[in-house]
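User: As part of a screening pipeline, I want to sanity-check one entry by hand. Below is the sequence and the SMILES for zinc ion. Please return the complex as structure tokens so I can compare it with the automated output.
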Amino acid sequence: MGSSSIPNGVEQQKQEKNLAKGAWYDTVDFLNLLLVIIIPIAGCIAAFWTPLYWQTFIFAVGYYFLTGLGVTAGSHRLWSHRSYVASLPLRVFLALVGAGAVEGSIRWWAKGHRVHHRYTDTPKDPYSIKKGLIFAHLGWMILKTDSKEKVRTDISDLDSDGVVVWQHKNYLQLVIIMAFIFPMVIAGLGWNDWMGGLVYAGIIRMFVVQQSNSLSHWLGDQPFDDNHSPRNNLITALVILGEGWHNFHHEFPSDYRAGIEWYQYDPTKWVIWIWEKMGLATNLTEFRQNEIEKGRVQQLQKKVDIQRSQLNWGIPLHDLPVIEWDDYVEQSKNGRQLVSIAGIVHDVSDFIGAHPGGKQIILTAVGKDATAMFNGGVYDHTNAAHNLLSTMRYAVVRGGMEVEAWKRPEDVRVPTDTLGNLIVGPHGQETRQL
Ligand SMILES: [Zn+2]
Ligand SMILES: [Zn+2]
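Assistant: Here is the complex for your manual check:
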């Protein structure tokens, strides 16, 4: 967890300049350019004169799921986050289909991903959404990062996993076999469609799998935390086998689930669960529900507080002018339509005509202490009535009822929300006397 390699702002600017100034061929990863841009374009062109057979189509969709799982259940949830333990046969399977996804070796992918979680939204985030959607989508695979900007992460666990090391050492051969030769051979031997197997189940399928992660920091809502960019979204979940519930994932990365609700589409989670039933996976990690709900409630609270701040709750008591009782009576006699309830004086002149109980009854309260009358003496007013009354506040009476105590702004009896605004609950209006 050492942070000694964090460069200061000036160094970072220099690095960015160097990257911009340097010869373009120094900054481009040609192998990835070939695999991510050139071969897919060639495949799309070849598709124009390659007929698509229905067997090949079904196989390509199935193989898309398998190779996608190599990344989502393999490189991501198993090797980056250790959210479950996989047996040797399962790890070999994931390493093979993962190579067919052509998103980099497990070792390379998981290392970058650990950096992504640790430095989300900062310049050290290898696929930072702050560098734009195109960079976060494909640019990060094609452009080499300046070596000085590379961040140290602990991947000793990956280096001691024989399957990971083997896949990393033989990555290019495995890519050629798993991404192109294997689907070509299956379609060729199966229903004599060698070319369709290569173009559709090989190249175009690979291209679709590669269009993965970036939208999850761009599109959707944030039910668990909005301090960073990760978002929850069904569309992203549909494209990348359930990885789109990314706001939850960044909060609870060691959870083998990304979509925690039963109705959230997360086939990666379902498959890991099935592997557990088959005895291939163990130790599936679930974050404690209590902690998950805490995050959800805090985020809900934040949204409620924003809504609260947009409403008119009346002038806070401690901001009202203080008047003497005699002054209140005097002003009422001289034509002001003021009503004192619980020591708080309200100007009801704009409301008299709209009073549901009639004009007359409210006029009898002018210039008097109407506390008992308002709180059940004549009619036990609703919460809505107390809320409405608070918007008519005019002054507080010195020594009137117990309001002097409420006038102190440091009063701890009054709860405030995360924005510092008063929380007035359904029975919290000061005019309510039980
Ligand atoms: Zn992310
Ligand atoms: Zn992750």
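Points to compare against the pipeline: The CA atoms of residues 352 and 362 lie 7 Å apart. The longest helix spans residues 54-80.
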